[in-house]
Amino acid sequence: MRLSRYFLPALKENPAEAQIASHRLMLRAGLIRQEAAGIYTWLPAGLRVLRKIEAIVRDELDRAGALELLMPTLQLADLWRESGRYEAYGPEMLRIRDRHERELLYGPTNEDMVTAIFRAHVKSYRALPINLYQVQWKFRDEQRPRFGVLRGREFLMKDAYSFDLDEAAARRSYRRMFVAYLRIFARLGIRAIPMRAETGPIGGDLSHEFLVLASSGESAVYCDRDALDLPIPGDDLDYGGDLEPIVRQWSSLYAATEDVHDIERFEREVPAERRLQTRGIEVGQVFYFGTKYSQPMKAAVTGADGAEHAIHGGSYGIGVSRLVGAIVEAGFDEAGIVWPEPVAPFRVGLINLDPADAAVAAACENLYAQLLARGVDVLHDDTGERAGVKFAHMDLLGLPWQIVIGRRGLERGIVELKRRATGERIELAPDDAAARFTMHGNE
Ligand code: ATP
Ligand code: MG
Q1: Helices 167-187 and 44-63, interaxial angle, to 10°?
Q2: Which atom of ligand 1 lies at the shortest distance from residue 210's CA?
């Protein structure tokens, strides 16, 4: 992409409403624009990040055997009356009437609807297990939308729902999602720690929240420092195998949010030097809730014994749009955002230092074409701005790599390659700079 042709409406001033770094930096870099409290437009560069996160989430869930569908954002109130939680949900639910005075709502979550879908089409245990997921916008009329996309009112969530014949099978489904979450967050380039959690309005008896540690986080968390170094299952993971040892290893270390924190246990189980007391951002949650929805909604299958069994369910959310902010909170510096490579809006920023010089422009065009041919996302700053402005802008945007091409360097046959995260720079020949990037990695 050429910056001169791009739509990246960066702000010059710090936006007054932004209280935390990710909100400020996302507005300043031109990734999002607020339309109403907690409601945002995703501008082109921000949307690229959102889409990259979605793609990783989908890829891993597909590997774990989940099936993607897409349910509507609007749901009938009657469906929620059937599951018994229409009244209970409270003012966070946006209730709507259509022209026929039918009561609708903008879905804050989808257990009810997916249970109705399952109930209509699955009758036998032979079809189980089933895990259905979607990546869809949700609306919750939060009392205090704040911190930009971290606590929006309209937000993008990946929500998955598992259906099993009994509790033992449902716990296997739960473990599959637990392990998929470990891998998803690692693949996004962040560390999210599973913590024991309260089950809240969705209900149930087994739940973990996954939190990214950040001082700006809304939740106080208490955990064993060793959880920061536990291994993440590798690419060779077999989702069909026994995942219990992995889940046991993670859940044997103390990690809890303030809601369920047990100070005596914490002090008993964790040696003082390993006690970590900090804050975190919830980026995902996994629940096993048994027959909470299948009972009232009569979602049952015939078992091998010929009898009807209410299915055992779980639901599994990831805050896709919240993750964009959480990833920024986990990695920024005074100059701006520092994206992990897998989710950066572009992997490379190509800076033309002397746009009026024909030789420099030709070298930039050549490198730009080579990178594109290699399948590398690149943002080419071909504008007429001053060098200082270009550097500051590229640092603010936080692309993992910068390639700087100027007249003086070219006279010596070199360009400069800078790694945003460390500031480390090397000089190399233009063709060698291109050759360092391949579709999937750097050499
Ligand atoms: P919170 O405690 O932060 O309000 P929650 O526990 O109510 O979240 P869940 O029902 O578990 O949220 O939703 C699944 C995921 O959706 C959460 O883990 C979070 O990442 C994301 N999420 C929930 N509420 C919001 C919101 N208002 N804005 C952005 N993301 C959200
Ligand atoms: Mg939650």
Answers
A1: 140
A2: 18
